[in-house]
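Worked example 4.2. Below are the chains of a multi-component assembly; read each line carefully before continuing.
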Amino acid sequence: MPVPTNHSKPVRRSAKENAYFQLEQWIIDGTLQPGEKLTDIELAQALNLSRTPIREALQLLEVVGFVKMYPGKATTVTEVFKEDIKDLLPALAVLQALAGELAVPNITEEQISRLEETNFRFAQAIKEKDSFNALKIDEEFHRIIIEAAQNPYITTMLSRLQSHVRRQFFHHSLELTEVSWKEHEEIIQAFKEKDAERLISLSKNNWIRSIEEMNAK
Amino acid sequence: MPVPTNHSKPVRRSAKENAYFQLEQWIIDGTLQPGEKLTDIELAQALNLSRTPIREALQLLEVVGFVKMYPGKATTVTEVFKEDIKDLLPALAVLQALAGELAVPNITEEQISRLEETNFRFAQAIKEKDSFNALKIDEEFHRIIIEAAQNPYITTMLSRLQSHVRRQFFHHSLELTEVSWKEHEEIIQAFKEKDAERLISLSKNNWIRSIEEMNAK
DNA sequence: AAACATTTGTCCGTATGTATA
DNA sequence: ATATACATACGGACAAATGTT
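Applying the procedure described above to all four chains together yields the following structure tokens:
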């Protein structure tokens, strides 16, 4: 019997990493509420660990902006204000626009195919009003572009911003409408035509529209 | 005798923070060389601390991209390639451009005065070929704009990118020429005229030029 | 004012994993 | 293959700081 060559990578995740991903998840989906006090000893018991990996995870979550530590006093989950979307979207937009611009000369046929396939599933999710899946697929879509841009600084910054957007989604039902789907279509078209300028203006319009929609409510 | 009202804030910095800033400094200025192995016990002795705050500081430095930890194996200072500037500059440019755009409606007369005063010192430093001070003053200049933009996501992202630029400066002598000074003048002018579009194009031209200059060498 | 309760910060011993002889 | 050396990962005790009674 041949040994499978596609080893499932030995993803030996440390306790710290497990704690990090678990806590991040809980903060994003609201299991841990904004303002909630986090005591490491309590979390340690809940996750069956010692305080050390918990503390380390909390410190990383603080860097990312999901947790605030008040030395000697308390550690709390950060608040999530609806107005933060106004700060989040423009930053997201310019970085995604730049990613698009940088991706133009690099992007492969295969990646463009994946964009089309992803946007197909995106349209379905929107049609079925499955907005949670729509968000996840939307992230997939943009990740392909980010991947093609091949710029590590942009990659980490966008992934951080996306996690905050995801949190906003859970706390103040963000909407992804059919307009988004059509914009994705246009983005794909711009890639095919290698039209970097068009990509930039599409991203820009996208966040202006999103903010206007938000204010309308 | 009146008690001074301007208390020197009780900046009771933790051992972890001290370790963080010291190590960051050493990595940026090259005291700790790229690829160098960092063992916590050794650093702990050097800074007269225990291993815990060192470990915590190293983990934060990893998030920021100055350190890479290979679990169970080693912790090393990340490499600093000259080509990384190509990735750094466009990201820096679009975020600074956005900061400028967002700052336009907010910026005060006082802040504009500070821009002018800062740029005056900037010009002096360049004239005297004091490039290290020029870099620091350039950062001051942009910090004023970032402050006026009042967007916390942009603030943290730019501060991180700036620290990487500073590191590049120490390792591969980056140059700030008189062109930069003139560009700052134009930026100030655009603020006075509240011309957001001009601010955006100025930032964009800035990084295109910088990259071209870099390739020329 | 002072002792107390609570929580974070720090120290250091030990377990676990990795690479090399 | 086994043993050994070495570095990180983790655990638990203690110290320091904060707020309160």
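Take a moment to check your reading of the output against the notes. Residues 196-216 of chain B form the longest helix (21 residues). The radius of gyration of chain B is 20 Å.
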